[in-house]
Every structure is written in C-alpha cells, then in structure tokens.
User: Fold these one by one.
Assistant:
Number 1:
Amino acid sequence: MALLPDPEPSRRHFVVVSVDDHLIEPPDLFEGRMPAHLVDRAPRVVDTVDGSQAWLYEGNHHPNIGLNAVVGRPHDEWSMSPARFDEMRPGCWDIHARVADMDKAGVWASLCFPSLIAGFAGVAFSRSKDPELGLACVRAWNDWHGDVWAATYPERIIPLQITWINDPLVAATEVRRNAERGFKALSFPENPSNLGLPSVHTDHWDPLLAACEETGTVICLHTGSAAWTAAQSPGAPLELATTLFPINGCAAAADWLWAKIPLRFPRLNVALSEGGIGWVPMLLDRLDYVSTHSGSGMSGAWTGDLTPSEALQRNFWFCTIDDPTTLAVRHRIGVDHIMVEVDYPHADSTWPDTQELLAGRLAGIPTEEVELMTHLNAARLFRHPLPPPGWTSGGAAA
Amino acid sequence: MALLPDPEPSRRHFVVVSVDDHLIEPPDLFEGRMPAHLVDRAPRVVDTVDGSQAWLYEGNHHPNIGLNAVVGRPHDEWSMSPARFDEMRPGCWDIHARVADMDKAGVWASLCFPSLIAGFAGVAFSRSKDPELGLACVRAWNDWHGDVWAATYPERIIPLQITWINDPLVAATEVRRNAERGFKALSFPENPSNLGLPSVHTDHWDPLLAACEETGTVICLHTGSAAWTAAQSPGAPLELATTLFPINGCAAAADWLWAKIPLRFPRLNVALSEGGIGWVPMLLDRLDYVSTHSGSGMSGAWTGDLTPSEALQRNFWFCTIDDPTTLAVRHRIGVDHIMVEVDYPHADSTWPDTQELLAGRLAGIPTEEVELMTHLNAARLFRHPLPPPGWTSGGAAA
C-alpha cells in the first residue's frame, strides 16, 4: 500500500481552531520519561507475527487501528485492520509533520486526544495491573504531550492531559501540576460508571472537578471514551456505531447535567468532544419540557436559579463536524458555545478539505458568528492565542 | 388522594390524531377471552398487602406505576408508586371515559399502546414461563383491543396489536388474522436483541416483516419497549431517563435502517412511537456524512438506489410532543412524515392542554402543513377515517 500524494494546500477562508483531533503515540514516547525501575516495563512498539506493529504493554498487544489513521490513505484501503507506522501519514505522530498538515488545511490550533495505547481519556493506563506502572505511564504521556507535542509549536497545540481515574485526589494533584505548566484541558471518560467506577451522581469526583474549576482546566468528554455505544445490536455493520457517535455526547451531557455538576461547580467548563451539535437543540427542548412538565420537582433533582437548559448553555461546549441542519438553528444552542473539529486523522476527519467543507456549511452566516465558531470560542475557552493578523490572507501557507 | 376536578373542554383549533397514547388494561380484560383450561391462570387484579392493587400473573405481581397514569391527578402526587384503579382517571381503562377525555382535548383518534401487564410491545406475555398461556394472553389482549377498545368507537381508535415475539411465524399468522379484522398497527420491541432475541441484522424476523408489509400493518417501535435506556449511571435522578427518552427512537431508527429493512421491505412502514422529532435532522445529516465520507462502502452495508437518509425519510414516521426548535427545520425531515402524540395518561402527556400547546408550537406554520402533522399524515399512514366536516368548529365538543 502507499500513501496518497501530498495534497495541495487549501485556500484559507477561516482561522480554524479544531477542538477534536488525535495524535498517535510515537514509538519513542516513553523513552527517558519513566522512572528507572519501570523503564523495562514501559509500553513499547513491537513487530507482530502478521507483519503489523503493536504496542506491547503488560503482556498485551494494542495495535493502532487503520480507521484511526486514515488521513492520506486511499479510501478503498480504509479498514479496521492494524496499521503500521510506515503506513500512516507522519502527521499522525510527528509534530513537525502535523503542523505542516495543519498548515495545509488552514488549521491554526488543535486539541489532540490520545489513541488506543492510552485510550481517549488515558483509561487504558489507569486499568493497568500494576498501578505504579500505570500512573508512571499517565505522567510520561502528559510529560511528552507538554514537552514535545505542545511545546514544539506552542501556538499551534492546546495542551491536553490524560487522567489517572483510579484516585480523584491523585488526579487532582496531576491537574494542578499540569495547569502550572500550561495545560488547558483534561480528557475524562464520558461516563465513569461504564468503567466500573463511581458515577458522576456521587461526590467521588469532587476533588478532581474542584481542581479543574480552580485552574480553569476544561474537562473534555470524548465520544467513546467510556466503552459505551448506543449501537447495541449484534451483527450490525460498522456504520451503525459510526452513525450513532453523537448519542454519546448527548447522553454524557444529560448525565453530567442531572448530576448537578453545573450547580456545584458553576465555573467548570465541560466540552463534548466529537459527536456534533445535532442533538443539542433536542436536549435543550427536552430539558425544558421535562423540567417544567413531565417530572418537575418530583425527585428534587434540580435547584438553583438556572434552569437545566440554561445550565447546559452555560457550562457545556459543543463542536460540529458536519451538521448543516442544526447550524440553521444555532441560536437556540448559543453561537458562543459552538466550536469546530477536524478529527485528524480519523475516518470522520474533514482534512484536507476542512476549509472547503466549512465554506459550504458556513455560507450565509454572518462573519462575526463564523469567527466565533471557527476559532474565537475555542480560543476563549482554552485560553489559547490567536494567529497573527493576516494568517488567513494570501491563500495557502508559505 | 383525590382526582382533580374534570377539566373544561378545550377550544378546538386542530383535528388531532395522536399516534402515541396508552391504555391501562381493565381488570376484566381477560374474562371470556381465554381457553377454558387456562381461565384459572389468566392474569387477574388483586389487592396487595400495602393497600394497592396489582396484576397477578404466573405468581408475580405487576403494579400499575403512578407515573403511567397521571392524567387528572394533582402534580404533587405524581410518583413511581403503584396506583389503584380508583386513583386513576377512568379514561385510563374505560373506553367511554377515554373518548370523553379525547373530546375534551379535541383528539379525534388515538393509537393506544399497552401498559405494564403486557409491556409496551406485549413482551411480558411472550416471556411467560408457560408459552401456551402467554400466547393465549397475547391473543386475548388483541381480541379485547379489537372487540372492545377499538370497536366501541371505531372512528376514534386505531386498532393496535401486541406481538408474540417468540416465533416470527406465529406472529405473522397473528398479524394476518388481525389485519382481516381491521388492525392497522403492531407494537414491536425497538431492539429484540436487548431481550435476548435475534437482532434485526438477521433474517429471523423476515416472516413477520413480510406479513406487515403485505397487510399494510405499521410496525410501531415504542420508546422503552426493549428494556434499554441511554441513561446508564447508577444514582441518577429519574429525570435523566425521562430526558433521554428520545435517544431510544434515534437508536432504533438507525438500527432498523442499517439492517437494510427498507431495502428488503420497501413498502414497510415503521413508526417511532414517542421520543419526538428532535433527533431526526441530526440522524439525517449524520447518515449523509457517514455514507458519503466516514465509512462509505467499507462494509458493503448499503446498496440500492436510495441513500440511507432517503430511506429513513421514506419508510420511517416520526411524532412530536414538544420539539419547538426542530419544528423550525421540519422540511429537512419531511412534513409528510411528522405526526403528533398526546401520550395520555403518562407523565409526558399534553392532555388536557393539547390544543393550547399545539396552538403555541404550530403558530406561524402554514395551515396545510399543520393539517398534515396534526392528523392527515396519521390518517394516511394508519388508513383511518377523518372526522366529519366541522368537527373542530364551534369550540368544545357538545
């Protein structure tokens, strides 16, 4: 197999800050970042008997799935099969190549989630047989993300950490450590109870939530980060689960909302990462109906000055990849809480046609609203710098 | 406790055909409708030690839940507690009282689903320890529904049957028997695999689907009919599950669609009963993106002339209870596939304020579209007669 020829740089219409992309952990990620007595047990990339490659960790192989690294690959070669590093576009794991690919698509800045060796929320390491080893891996991943992935081009990458979910106190300490060195976001499983952990309807997570609120760290709930899908039927084609990605965001937002987290942590920001905005008007309308009609006050689940739908609009943030119908009713959501995602290098990704797709979808929307959605909201939420004036002008990047 | 005073009849703005209401099975439902040797084992209503009432069937008690019979009860008495028949508004189980209540709210016709003794899709009887007894109960329920509930006021009730889900051949025979005596609809679990049965991604159900297509029997997938909810977290307030009702409709529609049922049974009509229309634009947009971009052709899951979203718009039917934002983008769904529901006597019900709520929600929409959504689409889908001219005029019913 071969990668497609390098695409031509797009004409830049918009400054894009993408709030959902992925990195694929490079083979040297853990080198020099593990305590000496754990070095030999750090995850490492090995060749497998089928000619592929996989991460080897605690005796198990974890391949990178082809669909999670499709950019630059011919469409008829997309599959669920394991992918070797040399079959992937280098932008998957090399930050210099990534920034060059961002330039090609006019993406100014990017929030990059992990891939399978860590899990979208770092959950894989938290599930280690040896917790000391797992926590060292979480810290090494965060150190690498901060020192290499984000620090090489600090204006282009929004630093995101993974979470040690086994202990909210340890997790809170890690949040504070990372906030001091510039991290702005944390990836957390959308529903910890699906992983056998206490649900968000307990006070178990309060130390972590408090640390995030205090440091302005955005909690990002990535679709699929808790091993749950609304696609339940055996024998269904892969398209069913792909179609239902947005349901995860909806279920997570409703769950975190009814857990009263916006009431207990009023300055906490929660981003629904991937899953679009198609469900947000439905959820707002439904919250209004349920809270004024169907079950109002019955369980005493809600108190305070804000209604549930107002709290959703205040504390939660959403991102779109391709929701043309919902963009028409964007004011119901609040244009100041809608962002965009590119989802590089996954099968959903708009790369390298991000600019062209957005130009079609955003046609007819006033410029000030377009600017909010394409970059200003994300820059404000994640406290990230904007590009120098003229970054979009003159067509493609030099 | 006491029921509220009888409400004043509403001013009638619209002819309403409600495609999602419920009946509560009356205590005498099975009398005279069971084979002689099973009479003693038919479900029967008994007084329980806590002063409530419950159906006794195969040694288990099945109470009617208060939230499923809230109409006419003071809001502060709504609860999940069991309800006695004398605590319910008689319209719950008595067809004369029901039609009087429909008159009060300007509801011309109603499609009534079962309550807990049967399960929304009759699943409870199919799960009987003794299958002979269970099947006799399904047939008795259908006989009663046809002979009493629907036949007493044939222009006011759309006959709906429950399904023997243990054997698609038996179920198909029952569909044909019922079609001959005027049944127009069948309640089927939204996802049989959640009940341990073969999924819709097999050919197991084809005899039943073929019988429905052949007889023009609409398959109604009622939210919650397969014991699945997107509300997963332990300790969540009841409002979470109530808020997430719509997810069931979305997940079921996507599931039945990717099972290629519209391609294999092109004239089959599938109604998503309860759950609103808020998710339909999202699903259409998402289907278009997934089928042209993210996974197009990868699994070979889709063939034929229609796209998945076009098939959703052709074979599936939707109903709204309160989706103001989505009504603004109703043309994306197709105004000819949107219907309304009242959900009498459940906690979500708009009764007795159905007319007033609809008047607010439908304000500004052209009359011909309003007429499609309030009654013409439902009358066409379920082949049900329309009211005599002038039925809405002159304010409340005599």
Number 2:
Amino acid sequence: MSILVVGSVAFDNIETPHGKRERCLGGAATHFSLAASYFTDVRVIGVVGEDFTAEDEAVFTRRGVDTRGLEHAPGKSFHWTGSYMNNLNEAQTLNTELNVFATFSPNVPDAYKDSDLLFLANIDPVLQMRVRAQMPNVRMVGGDTMNYWITGHRENLVKMLAGLDALLINDGEAKLLAEDSNLVVAARKILTMGPKALIVKHGEYGATAFFSEKAFGGNKRLYLPFRAPALPLAEVVDPTGAGDSFAGGFFGYLDSQKEITLENFKRAMFYGGVMGSFAVQRFGTEQTQSLTREEIDQRFALFRELSHLD
Amino acid sequence: MSILVVGSVAFDNIETPHGKRERCLGGAATHFSLAASYFTDVRVIGVVGEDFTAEDEAVFTRRGVDTRGLEHAPGKSFHWTGSYMNNLNEAQTLNTELNVFATFSPNVPDAYKDSDLLFLANIDPVLQMRVRAQMPNVRMVGGDTMNYWITGHRENLVKMLAGLDALLINDGEAKLLAEDSNLVVAARKILTMGPKALIVKHGEYGATAFFSEKAFGGNKRLYLPFRAPALPLAEVVDPTGAGDSFAGGFFGYLDSQKEITLENFKRAMFYGGVMGSFAVQRFGTEQTQSLTREEIDQRFALFRELSHLD
C-alpha cells in the first residue's frame, strides 16, 4: 500500500513559551509524511528552493519517504514565522514568505500514479483539484483546508470538496464552512457537500468523526459519530504540525489496512491522536523523526486505557 | 445506599435560541437530585420560600427524593434570570435574587446522618464545610464551586477542598483555581489541595478525571487520567443544569455500587455524561423528571459505541 501527499514543505521560525527555533523543517506535507511513514509507504509532492539541503531531504528519506515528487525550484523555500506566546492553541503568524511556493503547480509523477490513498494538504483548492484529477482510480481521497480558502475562495473549495472522501478540519473551520455554530448541524451540512466522512479536530479534546450515509459502501445505515481522545499533556512544547501529524497517523494507518471499514476508521482516529500527541512534545519534526512503531503502539494502548471502560 | 446533596433550589427565568421559560424549577440541588434519583436514594438539603408550592415539591417526591431537609422559610425562593442568546456554552446572568437563600444555614437532619455519599453543590464554602463537619463518617464527599468563590473567597475554599474526595468543576474554574493555563499541571496542583479525584467538565467535549496517588485506597499507583465523551447533539435547548445533572448521574451511579473502584468511577463518568446530555434537551428539569432507567442505559450504550474501539 502507499499514500501520496501533496502540500507545503517549509522552513519555520517558531516561538513558544518553551523556547525559540529558527529554520525548523516544517510544512503540512512534511509533518504528514513523517507521521504516515510509520504505517505505510509515503510519497510526497511539493516544491523546495535552493536553500533546501541534502540533509533536509534526508529527513524524509531516512523515514523511507519517496521524494521524487519534490520539485527543486530556483529561489528560496516557503518560510513561515509564528508565535504561540499568547495562546498555545492558536499560532499567531508573524511573517509568511511564499517564495517558490507562490508559483507551485503540482504534477503527479508517473511513478506515483498507482498510489492507493491521496491526501490533499491545505493548499489552494484549485491545486488540490488539479492533483485529484490526475489520480482518478485512487482508493480514498482525504483533504484539509483553512479559513483563508473558506472565506475567500469558497466557490473553488466547494468544487474541491465534491471530490473528497474525507475532510479533516478543526471546529472553527467546520462552523465557518457550514455557517452554523452547532457542530452536529455543521457536520451534516458539510457531508452534503461531498465528503463521506468529516473529521473535526478539537485540539486537546480529541477529535470527532461524522459519517454520511454513503460511507463504507453506502449501505445507508445511519452511523453514530465517533469520538477519539487526545492525551492530556503537562507540557506542550510546540503545537506546529499537530493537525498534519494527526492526518498522517490517520491516513497512514488506514492505508496499511486491506479494507477501510468502520472499525479500521475508528482505530485510525486513535492513531491520528497518537501521532498528534507525539508531534507537540518537541519542536518542529524533532519527535516525529525519531519514533519507533513500538512506542507508537504503546501510546495507542494508553489512548485506549484513557478512554475505555472495562 | 443513599446520597445527600446540599445546594440551591431556585426558580429560573431562562432565555435560549429555542425559546423562553419563566419560573422553571431549578437550582443545583434540584438538577442533582433528579439526575441521581434514577440510581439511588436521594436526600436534599436546601431552602425554599413561600412561593414554593406542593406541586414544586412533588417534582422531587415523585422521583422518590427525600425532601425532609428542605427548609420552608418566610419570603421568596432564590430566583435566577439568565440568557444563552449570545453563547449556548455560557449563561449570561441577567438578574439574581437570593431571597431566602441569602441567609441559608444548612443543618443535616438526624434522619440524613447515615447517608453514604455527600455532595456539596456550589454554595459558600463556609456552608459546605459546615455540612461536611456534620457528616464525619460519610463514605465519599464530592463538591462543586465557581469563579466567584475561587477569586473572592479563596482562603475558605481551600479549607473546604481539604475535606473533599472529589471535586467537579469546569476547565476555566480548574485553571483559575490552580492559576495555571495547562490543564494537566492545574489538575496536579488541585490534587495537592485535598481531593483525591478531580473531574473537569469540558461541556460538549466531555469530561476528564484526574487522580491523586491517594485515590482508591492509596496504593500509590500512578493513575492515568480518564476521558468520558459527551454526546454530539444537533439541538441544545437549554444548557442550564447540565453540570449538576452530570454530577447527579456520576455520584448517583457511584452510590449505587458496593465499592468505589476505578472501573466504577469510569462508568460513573459515562453516566454523568448521559444525564448531562438528557438535561440539555428540554428546558429546566423537564427531561430529567420524566426518564426511565431503560432510556438511561440505552444512552449509556450509545456513549460506549461513540467512544470505544471493537
């Protein structure tokens, strides 16, 4: 099995109450790839500049991530500067330099076309659709988006959503997208826009999955939502990439399974939470670079103990 | 088994996006009593005025609640007016008339002294301590409080906490009490103040229990926190009393069990969520007055399906 992710690869300057880091390797595709790499084969599509070194690329390849889809363009890589000094739950963007990312035009290499799953990380919905169209036979398509596209590019976003099997966003994004302040009502609306499953991330409170009647083969059974916990942590060092690590753990686990059943979907939600909990324990991708599958499964067991009766 | 609750009995004027109600029977002790009554024998201590009718009292007695501790005082009952028009998650208090509650001085009737559990609902910590002192041999003591006592009466509150086995508060109250914005750190601090267990209510995201090493017989094993879900609801009619109904379900279930084990505690967290989810589906105590144990156990099964793998 293999999963293809398209999204940003970036350098991040990050400030949190636990310290400051400059030029951390980051970006949604990076966090996603590393998290998913513990479960399945990962292929990445993105663009980097001349400042992206062989050592940066080795962060991917050491985890077995296929980087043949990483385009090396003239100029500098995408560079983001953010601070969590006021609020650990929400980054304050201090500076964004798109650089080579401004003209990113993703194409799927032939070698990637047999990927089983596709994840469209948070980029322009026009580009998400462009990649989606090049992968007509993929088993499952997941996607992410953000307020910027919801408010300013709604028409394109709605078109993009029609091509998704699963959308992963947070509470605020779901309510904004559906224009409703009740999460259940918002979820029902979003599920009429295309996705068969909506995963809403609640940060420290975990995540909830909502399903349309078309999910899991469309037997029209009305599925109950599913809630996965997050790990209560005494120390959150750097929240950057938590959501993308969740997505990587979630889709990586799903891709490693023969069938996408409701039970596998639930377990994938737990693995998403597990990878998100690791991501925030150190700066950038430091923690997600250096895990073992055993540590991941131990934490999965912890998540179960944390939330299960008996 | 039997549980004794001391707290407010009130009339509430409530406005929510779903409508307006005047003189709903309310108050923490009322919501708690009705929720707990589905699990165990309940005894209530409170004060009401001359406007409290036989029909109001019948709301308690129809559910088998022992009202011999309800003091009938000259004057009017406690009257609260609140609105959820701006935010369904937080009541805006428009008016508070303490009336007979202003001089409330609770005493435990002899007939109540053999109660197994005691719940000190949100009242002045001086009064909570007064009741606590009259129940030296009780099996377990739970308590609630609010920002008003945390900020303005901290010294008394801290003394009261020393006599509690379990404290039930929400996220904001826990962080304010501990003066720390990280919930895990806040919980650890609060657990050094006396309670062996802290239950933090997250509203629509459920609740988390944290345990000190003194919990469950003090075997010094380090307990993992435990997370119970809330039911995602498309319609929240009236949030008033959700937290007290959670507490009633939680302590009511615990009191019905021979032993207070970790496993019973976890199930009690689920029953707390179940009773909270019923409470918000209609105005005031309308829903909690008229349930069956079968409906409650069906929803318990739903909570399990909502949150459990396999």
